[in-house]
Amino acid sequence: MALYVQKYGGTSVGTVDRIEAVADKVAGFKAEGHDIVVVVSAMSGETNRLIGLAKDIQSAPNPREMDVLVSTGEQVTIALLSMALDKRGISARSYTGSQVKILTDTAHMKARIQDIEVSSMQSDLEAGRVVVVAGFQGVDDQGNITTLGRGGSDTTGVALAAALKADECQIYTDVDGVYTTDPRVVEGAQRLEQITFEEMLEMASLGSKVLQIRAVEFAGKYKVPLRVLSSFEDGPGTLITTEDDSTMEKPVISGIAFNRDEAKLTVVGVPDVPGVASRILGSISRENIEVDVIVQNVAADNTTDFTFTVHRNDYDAAEKVLQKVAEELGAREVAGDNKIAKVSIVGVGMRSHAGVASKMFDALAAENINIQMISTSEIKVSVVIAEKYLELAVRALHSAFELDADDTVSE
Amino acid sequence: MALYVQKYGGTSVGTVDRIEAVADKVAGFKAEGHDIVVVVSAMSGETNRLIGLAKDIQSAPNPREMDVLVSTGEQVTIALLSMALDKRGISARSYTGSQVKILTDTAHMKARIQDIEVSSMQSDLEAGRVVVVAGFQGVDDQGNITTLGRGGSDTTGVALAAALKADECQIYTDVDGVYTTDPRVVEGAQRLEQITFEEMLEMASLGSKVLQIRAVEFAGKYKVPLRVLSSFEDGPGTLITTEDDSTMEKPVISGIAFNRDEAKLTVVGVPDVPGVASRILGSISRENIEVDVIVQNVAADNTTDFTFTVHRNDYDAAEKVLQKVAEELGAREVAGDNKIAKVSIVGVGMRSHAGVASKMFDALAAENINIQMISTSEIKVSVVIAEKYLELAVRALHSAFELDADDTVSE
User: Fold this and answer.
1) Residue B7 among known ligand-binding residues
2) Which family does it belong to (chains A, B) (predicted)?
């Protein structure tokens, strides 16, 4: 008998029929004797409909009122799901973020959770009720409705699981787990039984859009076991948890992540004096452009080359800023390429295994793929390559690290 | 400089364009220096859409969750109207019923207001803000969302006006005031400048669906001046207020109300002994059938005839019950007619004028309209006639009491 916090996203509650299916699923867990707290998103399309109404009035709608508006989306879902449970003879009670109450700061449209009152929910659980909570929303200390930003329902689920000391936070979505890489690119991509929070963060930030990064961070911080499962088919999904020493056989690399939306920029021949990196990046961040990989090589003949990547959409803006900075710094020129992609191998296993990076470079060299940039972290090695080689590189690495379905016996 | 509580119904806020028009209207009042509290309904069609979703799940949806669901309708409108005001440079703040807070009992879907906290709204008004409140909803002492029942936004407006001691509660609707009778029946029907709460109650309950009866009762009880105006065209509307002694010239009759949805039932030849009326009506009310006019004549030869009217939809059910009761009472038979209508003349002026009733009967007799039942109150005389004479009777009375546009000089 466990306490599960289950989060169902917009697609999982997108129609009345799907809400009924969620109610069936919850009823099944109840019948097994578990305590269930359900967190739901707005029905798919509803949030966009509401935002559309607002944008018809104001191009940049008042943030406080935006939160009043969009928070109705989840409120509709909690009511409908509670009715569907009631219909099945299961006592349920819905809660808006204010009713819980999920206390946040006042940063409308991107609020952060500060505290969660659990007493009412606990009384309901003790009375045998299913608790149905509106995801994505909270309330500040003045009683203003706030939202956590789009996709924030995952965060609500994890925060509730932490506050209620739940046995597991289960994120139901339209995929059946986290894969070794994108199955659309590599046919042999496999679902992972288990992955660590750190690996998941690296995978998530590199484009596996299964889970919100914030929710994973939150879960890691509070050590809430997180499971990604499919709303539409049964299966164990993927458990995201702290590193488990008992998994001796854990492969060195858990997955191959990639991102094709990048562009790189190089300031060539920068004088090698202190403060240069800060002046270059400072000018970029003042334009609200986010930088991903940064590489600077050792200097030769008193100048150096400074290279970094940005989102492809920011390429033109970044280049314009750099031209000015380069002139001020007396740099030789600004070079760039917006037809690049980043490929990364991710795995906590690489901490204790030498030779992972060289194996990666060998695999790419064998396919004649030139590596333009390299960046590493403790559990990740990323390379920047020409975009046209992306799929080839991902497949080669997936195979080199024996992640293909043919290579390993399914657990 | 006055404080107005203005209520805009679903049609008045039915689209983004109409919400913008309401914002223009409110901006105009603000520019004149008035303090404004706006109460809004859900955008027209939205409440029915939400109820439809619920009914797809449960034929009799859980009342608590129904309130959570439908209260989102007004919440959407308050956010959008606040944005539209913000766009016009007018500082505005939206409030749900919970945020106000409008404290109600726990009777979900038909809650009654118990108390209203005015401090936050007053601070906003003092700071020059327009306060935008979701109509129709409140919160019980446990924090559960409640609703006042359909159309309850009028009641919210009046209750807020009473609590804030507003100078006037203005109900914006799709008609430009209260008329002497239905203009679709009598071409010469005229807008009334003023009408008393009591007259309005008699008019409202008899089918002039301009205002919710509860809101009028509430306004009368707390002496809140109530004005009905059009959202779509300018004009003074109709002021509903306490009797004004200064209006010497007030006509005897303010208006002609009618209702064609009635049916009458007679228990013929009931023994004239105590307790008969209570046994007959008790059996009807146990079936949750509402009774309107009741007439019992003096007895002849120890038996009497007991007649009453019900809504036409309840005719069959009422007859079935009566057959059984008639048998138990030893009554002769049950007779009935579901092709009847009720016509009433309403006016506080009739208190001090003799001969009003006879003038009414004369006018009907002149058209050869047979009167089947008569019922009177201090400010009203109602007659039941065959339905086919309804329009003829209304026109005859409207003319007899000199209410036609040709007869009186517009005030």
Assistant:
1) yes
2) Belongs to the aspartokinase family.
